[in-house]
Design a protein that fits this description.
single chain, alpha/beta, Rossmann fold, Adenine-specific Methyltransferase, domain 2, binds S-adenosylmethionine
Length: 308
């Protein structure tokens, strides 16, 4: 029997901590009333894997704007043996090195990753081997970089420095094989969340975890892609959520709670006035300094009250 699948990368905004709260909302009807699942901002997929471990669903759809991430999901689904072989090799080469030599190795791999990434549109559907290499380097960098961050500069280049993990597990083959088996029938789209529109119907549970509205002046540093997610985009997402609410899909959306820093900021209350909003506790990194972690509130917006 295979082990439960877990996120294969550390991802900013990962929802591991909120799983229980999210599960309390969907568990009453998933697998029975709702037999399809969509996660249009999938990131590391904490909720996705929680759902896939527990339910056999008719159809599952994930998307993200981050090309490298979605390519990696696809490679895990379709070519996991090749990926594991390459990751084992990277692990064997990296781990025995001194800190100085690890740095040289890390920056060399980061450079190679950025070259592959810049050619992405040409190679997207071509050489499988290049995509395996891209996915391997994506996971390697995630496991060895500072805090598992994914951040790109203005030119779209990964620019996170090396982290200081003593013995990072670069190749977690048991988990990768388990993730691969769980992803076999999952539809994967590299693109905007609005492309999920055609998939969603009254049988679908949709979980939205968009980039957070920054909770402090400095916390917007975690750029997953070159595009930010400002208030106008939060508004556009709310319009989209209203549209699929009309289709009777079950909806949960999460975000940071603006009241963490300003008790007069009712942005989400206004945006989601007709929905149920739960305030839940989470521990998050609150600025670029990794030691600055704090207990903060996050929001779960849902239309579940319509159904239960
Ligand atoms: C908060 S993270 C999701 C974290 C995820 N729930 C987890 O557990 O790791 C938000 C994700 O949305 C993606 N994203 C940003 N803008 C998007 C858009 N317009 N459409 C789809 N995905 C987008 C980012 O690349 C990022 O991976």
């Amino acid at each position: 029997m295979s082990i439960d699948a877990r996120p294969f990368v550390k991802w900013v905004g990962g929802k591991g901590q909120l799983l229980n709260e999210i599960q309390k909302i969907y568990s009453a009807g998933l697998g029975t009333k709702w037999t399809k699942y969509a996660e249009p901002f999938v990131g590391g997929g904490a909720v996705l894997f929680n759902v896939l471990n527990k339910y056999y669903l008719k159809d599952v759809y994930i998307s993200d704007l981050n090309y490298e991430l979605i390519i990696t999901y696809r490679i895990i689904r379709d070519s996991v043996e090749k990926l594991v072989k390459r990751l084992k090799q990277l692990q064997k080469e990296f781990i025995p090195l001194s800190t100085e030599n690890r740095k040289i190795f890390y920056y060399e791999k980061r450079g190679q990753f950025n070259i592959l990434k810049s050619n992405i549109t040409q190679i997207y559907s071509s050489l499988d081997l290049d995509l395996v290499e891209l996915a391997s380097l994506f996971i390697f960098l995630n496991k060895t970089c500072f805090n598992g961050l994914y951040r790109v500069n203005q030119s779209g280049e990964h620019n996170v420095p090396m982290g200081s993990y003593k013995n990072p597990k670069i190749c977690d083959s048991d988990n990768l094989f388990s993730v691969s088996s769980k992803l076999q029938d999952v539809q994967m789209v590299c693109g905007d969340y609005q492309q999920s529109r055609d998939f969603i119907d009254s049988e679908t549970f949709v979980y939205f975890d968009p980039p957070y509205r920054p909770i402090s002046e400095t916390s917007s540093f975690a750029s997953y892609t070159q595009d930010g997610f400002n208030d106008a985009q939060q508004q556009k997402l709310a319009d989209f959520i209203n549209e699929i609410n009309d289709l009777d899909a079950l909806i949960i959306a999460s975000n940071s709670d603006p009241n963490n820093i300003n008790s007069d900021d009712h942005f989400f209350e206004r945006l989601y006035a007709s929905y149920c909003i739960k305030h839940v506790d989470a521990t998050r990194m609150i600025n670029c300094n990794s030691s600055a972690r704090g207990c903060i509130k996050e929001l779960l917006v849902t239309n579940a009250n319509r159904f239960f």
